[in-house]
Write a structure and sequence with these properties.
This protein is an alpha/beta fold and 340 residues long. The chain is 37% helix and 21% strand. The strands form three sheets. Strands 3-4-5-6-9-10-11-12-13-14 form a ten-stranded mixed β-sheet, with helices on one face. The protein has a two-stranded parallel ribbon with strand order 1-2. It has a two-stranded antiparallel sheet with strand order 7-8. Helix 4 (130-144) packs across helix 5. The longest helix is centred in the middle third of the chain and has 15 residues, at 130-144. The two termini are 31 Å apart. The protein binds S-adenosyl-L-homocysteine. S-adenosyl-L-homocysteine binds at residues 112, 114, 116-117, 154, 158, 189-191, 212, 252, 254, 283, 285-286, 288, 328-329.
Length: 340
C-alpha cells in the first residue's frame, strides 16, 4: 500500500487521476489530510465508493499523543507520539518572541553512538517516513492550536542517515500546496556524515545546516562521537556545502567539563569556525543520567565564549529551554521505554 502522507501534491494528483477520478479530488483529499483527518471514511465530500477505494489502495497513519509536558519555566512543550507500529518519537515546541519553533525527530532511535546523547542508547529502530515527520509538525500545531514558523531537525535520529525521506519531507513541508513553510526557516542538524552532506548540497535546498562538532580535534571528537569522519574531511565537505548552497553553516558545541572546554580547544575551534565562516552555538551539556558526563561550569563557558569572540567568531550561548521536562534529545522516549 502506498503511504498517502508521503506523496507530493503532484504525485497524489497523478494517482487519483490514474484511478479514473477528476484531479480536483486530490485537492479535496489534501485538505482533509491538512486538517488532521486520518480516516478516509470521514472525508465526507468524496463519493463513498472513492473513499472505499482509497482505503484499499493507501495506508493512512496517525500519531497518537502518549504524553505531553509543558515547562513551568518557559512554556516549552514536549510531546511523545505513538506511531502506528507501536514505536514512539518526541517533538519539542519552543515559543520564542519571533514565533513558534518545533524540533522534530527523524528516526526512532539513532545509530551514531554519541557519548553524551540519550537518543542513541538503544540503537536505531527505524527511520521515519516523510509523512510521519510532517505529522510531527501538523499534530503539534493542531494539539496546541499554534502556527509554527520554524522547524529544526534536531530531535531523535540522524537526518542524514535518513536522507531520502528527509529530502522528501523538506519538499512536502515547503510545497506551496502543502504546508508552504519557507525552507529558509528550516535547520537540519547532523553529526557530520560526509556523504550525506555532499548529497544534501547537491539538492541545493536553502535550509540551514548545523554541524554538531562538539570537539575541534580528532582525538576528542572520535572519543565522544564514534561517527567522526575526521576533522579534515568534515571541513572539506562543509566548505563544499557552503560554496554550493551559499548558506551559512553553524556549529553546535555542547560544553562538557574537562572534555572539550580547554583554552587550546577554544583556539582550535576558532580556527575552524573562521575557516568556514561558521556561527558557533555553545550549549551547556544537558545532563543525561546514563551518560556520566557533566556540563562545563557557567564561568568556563563564559571564558570559552570570550576566547572565541576575541578571535572574531560569531558565537551564541544557547539558553537551555525546558530544563524541568527532560527536554534534551531522546530523554522522554527513554523514560517512557523504561517504564513500559
Ligand atoms: N543527529 C543530529 C541531530 C540530533 S541531536 C546531530 O547529531 O546533530 C541534536 C543536537 O543535540 C546535536 O547537536 C546533539 O549533539 C545535541 N545533543 C545530544 N545530546 C545532548 C546533551 N546531552 N546535551 C546537549 N546537547 C546534546
Amino acid at each position: 500500500m502506498t503511504d498517502i502522507l508521503s506523496l507530493t501534491p503532484e504525485e497524489l494528483k497523478e494517482q487519483i487521476v490514474s484511478l479514473g477520478q477528476p484531479a480536483f479530488r486530490a485537492k479535496q483529499i489534501s485538505s482533509w489530510l491538512k486538517a488532521g483527518v486520518r480516516d478516509f471514511s470521514q472525508m465526507s465530500n468524496l463519493p463513498k465508493e472513492l473513499r472505499e477505494t482509497l482505503a484499499q489502495q493507501f495506508s493512512l497513519t496517525a500519531p497518537v499523543l502518549l504524553r505531553a509536558q509543558t515547562s513551568a519555566l518557559d512554556g516549552t512543550g514536549k510531546f511523545l507520539w505513538g506511531l502506528q507500529d507501536g514505536n514512539c518519537v518526541e517533538t519539542v515546541l519552543m515559543r520564542y518572541r519571533y514565533g513558534n519553533s518545533v524540533c522534530i525527530s527523524s528516526q526512532v532511535g539513532c545509530r551514531q553512538g554519541c557519548a553524551f546523547c540519550a537518543s542513541t542508547i538503544g540503537g536505531l529502530i527505524r527511520s521515519l517516513t516523510a509523512g510521519e515527520m510532517l505529522d510531527e509538525v501538523l499534530f503539534t500545531e493542531l494539539e496546541n492550536n499554534v502556527k509554527i514558523s520554524n522547524i529544526v531537525l534536531m530531535g531523535i535520529g540522524e537526518p542524514l542517515d535518513n536522507l531520502d525521506n528527509v529530502i522528501r519531507f523538506l519538499r512536502l513541508v515547503s510545497h506551496p500546496e502543502g504546508r508552504n513553510l519557507s525552507l529558509r526557516h528550516i535547520t537540519a542538524s547532523t553529526c557530520g556524515l560526509p556523504e550525506g552532506i555532499r548529497r544534501l548540497a547537491e539538492e541545493e535546498l536553502p535550509i540551514t545546516l548545523s554541524v554538531s562538532l562538539h570537539a575541534p580535534d580528532d582525538e576528542t571528537r572520535s572519543r565522544i562521537m564514534p561517527s567522526n569522519c575526521g576533522i579534515t574531511l568534515l571541513t572539506e565537505v562543509c566548505r563544499e556545502y557552503v560554496k554550493r548552497t551559499g548558506r551559512r553553516l553553524s556549529f553546535e558545541y555542547a560544553m562538557i567539563a574537562g572534555v572539550n572546554d580547554s583554552d587550546r580547544q577554544a583556539e582550535q575551534l576558532a580556527r575552524l569556525a573562521g575557516l568556514l565562516g561558521a556561527h558557533v552555538n555553545l550549549i551547556p551539556l544537558n545532563y543525561v543520567a546514563e551518560r556520566g558526563l557533566t556540563p562545563s561550569s557557567p564561568s568556563v563557558i563564559r571564558h570559552f565564549q570570550t576566547m572565541l569572540e576575541e578571535k572574531n567568531v560569531n558565537v551564541t550561548v544557547r539558553r537551555s529551554l525546558g530544563g524541568d521536562i527532560d527536554a534534551s534529545c531522546g530523554q522522554l522516549r527513554r523514560n517512557h521505554m523504561k517504564n513500559h
